[in-house]
Design brief:
The chain is mainly beta and about 110 residues long. It is about 10% helix and about 40% strand.
């Protein structure tokens, strides 16, 4: 497990070979989000299709973490609350929760 200065921890499950996104790029990903207790709160796998979004319009932990990846890669991120949803929380996420995301970077657009 590696850690960045922000506290983001990550593990490379599969190294990608394509290009890495910049914060201003649009990315297409498959992902699963879990709470520390293992409860899945969101999953593109369960919906059966990947999601596409501008990388600078998601939580800071995603913006930072996905820039470490290359297309075709799969990482596991442990995102502390201060670079996730913080004190506000979100649907199904208590305030100040550390989140675990498994993310596959399919494409940088």
């Amino acid at each position: 497990m590696k850690q960045t200065d922000s506290g983001l921890q990550y593990k490379v499950l599969k190294e990608g070979t394509g290009k890495s996104p910049k914060a201003t790029d649009v990315v297409e990903v498959n992902y699963e989000g879990k709470l520390i207790d293992g409860t899945v709160f969101d999953s593109s796998y369960e919906r059966g299709e990947p999601i596409e979004f501008p990388l600078n319009q998601v939580i800071a932990g995603w913006t930072e973490g996905l820039q470490l990846m290359k297309e075709g890669g799969k990482y596991e991120f442990y995102i502390p609350s201060d670079i996730a949803y913080g004190e506000a929380g979100n649907a199904g996420i208590e305030p100040n929760s550390t989140l675990i995301f498994t993310v596959e970077l399919l494409k940088v657009k």
